[in-house]
Amino acid sequence: MSDASTRDGATSAGSAASGRTYRPGVTLEGVTKTFGTAGAPVVALERVDLTIGDGEFVAVVGPSGCGKSTMLRLISRLSLPTTGKITVFDDTSTKPPIGMSIVFQNHVLLAWRTILENVLFPADMVGESKAPLRAKAMDLLTSVGLADFAGRYPHELSGGMKQRASIARALLLQPRLLLMDEPFGALDALTREQMRVDLEALWLKHRMTILFITHSIDEAVLLADRVIVMSPRPGRIERIMEINMARPRGLAARRDPEFLEKTEEITEIFLSRGVLHGEAH
Ligand SMILES: Nc1ncnc2c1ncn2[C@@H]1O[C@H](COP(=O)(O)OP(=O)(O)OP(=O)(O)O)[C@@H](O)[C@H]1O
């Protein structure tokens, strides 16, 4: 459960060799979340301590029910911890953090709005004028490969295209914090691979803090600066693993010895915790 911090408070999110140093962005201190009071309460998260650097890309991987989505909901303040403290860019209030966007597994595009109007939707939500944001929205649609689909409606797009539009929408107001809850979980393997490469490119361009939740060991290692490996319920941090592969990692990263080494290490953790079984059941 190492979470190295330097003396000036900056989080060291990489090895000395990688030279990555971040200021703290999101901090969880002794965070526990328990659901239900009568009968048998469910401890979804137990004593989680974690610092995510400002501008860092962190992935959380773990078995179903280990509290990954709970962690994301607590950081977004859609839900409050039972005990412990969560700080988001120095803010410890219980209001949704300013500058936060969320992307869920299933797109939440509005069927009656064009793709461009969907991408502009956050401006309506915060009462900003849309006109000055149109060029930005088009740029974002171009960067996710949807420039030609700005005038189409969601039902005219494939699942992957809809999820690209959701990501473009999440970036419209330049979030400082992007929470992604299994954003590629519903996509086919090829689309997923491409989305991963494209997300890395977007992150390298915008450098927002990303918390990316996934069931995929490969995806976590390929994308993140650090991978948080969760144990089965009650969800605890089992290991924090630094990934030092050079960026952009792109498709070639799958052949990097570090990719093989880290995915193997995480698989071993899950085997030892009974999350995975070497033999068929
Ligand atoms: N609102 C709720 N009320 C009661 N129990 C809940 C609630 N939300 C989550 N839980 C329980 O908390 C535990 C963690 O759930 P959570 O959704 O965070 O897991 P997860 O790791 O995201 O799972 P998955 O990978 O399947 O999405 C589970 O046992 C779940 O049943």
TrEMBL record:
Protein name per UniProt: NitT/TauT family transport system ATP-binding protein
Protein species of origin: Chelatococcus asaccharovorans
Keyword Disulfide bond: no
Top-rank taxon: Bacteria
PROSITE patterns: ABC_TRANSPORTER_1, ABC_TRANSPORTER_2
Keywords, alphabetical: ATP-binding, Nucleotide-binding, Transport
Domain ABC transporter residues, every copy: 26-257
Family: Belongs to the ABC transporter superfamily.
GO molecular function terms noted in the UniProt entry: ATP binding; ATP hydrolysis activity
